[in-house]
Design goal:
Length: 274
């Protein structure tokens, strides 16, 4: 697929390793990542799966090499840890997404290889589409998977100042875990200066209730009082099935300037390239 874009593919030396539930031991996975950041021939880094254990290697990223030769990384889910670290320490624009599904693939290609912005509209059938707080905000889109975002609090890799925070998650357990993660972010002060909130997929919670509450009730209860625009229903993240019946999602640039217009129902993100 990537070769059809006119690009060459260089697979990391340890890409097929296994170490428990992770793709190789920490030192080897970190070495592959830093090798890619240090190699001037590499122009983008694409993760093939979620990235379990990525939180274990972010302190060893060669941020000097990242700043000297910026190049985006593509991924989501656990890769949120790397997105956050690269934003906080190097202000690097990256892509929340994957190469699985026609929409995801087209979005990633366009965000990597053109300067055109991408506008994402809410899916009215999405579970989180019920959440909307009017308003317009401009700022870098920062965030990704809620569990990983909350887990990064206290680790020095969360900077949401003046940012549009992106949230999505899959169902690990009940809605109480979503409540705990959101409360952790609020109590830590990480959300004190955010500009807006873009809510992606929480589709794994579809049909799930706890004492009459749904995940939408929890998201609204915890976030609506922050006094910032909120746009829900964005097909970004886990558990989204596209028109072809397979997994698919919208990709979005993290770190580039975005415009969230909850009144018009649009999230417009910039490209990774200038």
């Amino acid at each position: 697929m990537i070769e059809s874009w006119g690009l060459q593919v260089d697979v990391g030396r340890h890409a097929l390793d296994e170490h428990g539930y992770m793709a190789g031991c920490d030192d080897d996975r970190l070495a592959d990542l830093n090798d890619a950041f240090r190699d001037p021939a590499v122009r983008a880094i694409i993760s093939t799966r979620g990235g379990a254990g990525s939180y274990r290697i972010i302190d060893g990223i060669d941020f000097a090499a990242v700043r000297a030769d910026p190049k985006p990384i593509v991924g989501f889910s656990d890769i949120t840890n790397i997105h956050l670290a690269l934003w906080t320490h190097a202000r690097l624009a990256t892509i929340h997404g994957c190469l699985a599904g026609p929409t995801a693939t087209t979005n990633v290609r366009d965000l990597l290889m053109t300067t055109a912005p991408l506008t994402i509209h809410p899916n009215p059938a999405a579970l989180s589409a019920a959440i909307n707080v009017p308003g317009v905000a401009v700022g870098p889109l920062v965030g990704g998977n809620l569990r990983e975002l909350a887990g990064s609090v206290g680790g020095g890799s969360v900077d949401l100042t003046a940012a549009i925070m992106l949230l999505e998650d899959l169902r690990h357990v009940g809605i109480g875990q979503v409540d705990r993660n959101l409360t952790q972010l609020i109590r830590s002060g990480a959300l004190d200066d955010i500009a807006a909130i873009a809510i992606g997929s929480f589709e794994g919670f579809n049909g799930y209730t706890d004492h009459g509450w749904t995940v939408v009730d929890v998201l609204h209860d915890r976030l609506a009082g922050l006094g910032v625009p909120i746009l829900g229903g964005l097909d970004i993240g886990h558990d989204i099935i596209g028109p072809t019946g397979t997994a698919d999602q919208n990709a979005a640039t993290l770190g580039a300037t975005a415009t969230l217009d909850a009144n018009a129902g649009t999230l417009t993100v910039g490209s990774c390239v200038q």
